[in-house]
User: Fold this.
Amino acid sequence: MQTPCRNKVLPMTKPDYAEGQVWTYDHRPGEDGSRVVIRKKGVEPEDGEVFHISILGVKLRNHRVEGGFQPAMHHAAVLRTTLDKSLRELTKASNDDAGWENGYGVWRQAYDNGDAGVFDLSVAEILGYIEMVVAASGEAR
Assistant:
């Protein structure tokens, strides 16, 4: 009689990411309640599969807003690699906020003009990068 191999490595299946899903992710310290919402999924000739996400419940440093922090990044265009390395658990929460559509519109026009791209960083790294860019744009001291 054969015994099953307990050390067999099974192939990883790709998650079926879909519009409207809300996920936990490897968040930054102090942003435990933060979530990623997948807003739109598409294919771009230059980049392949692209997901448009919102990152909610963050403390994104921004000297341009009252109090110096914004609670959300309403739009980011990301590759599947971003989702694969960041997302952890699909939640039952939903978020129908349409605020992301303005950011998507700005990105779409810039992308079509060759002036914008798609992130392949982790979600936490995207937030850090955005803070760096905003700070470099003239943070009040």
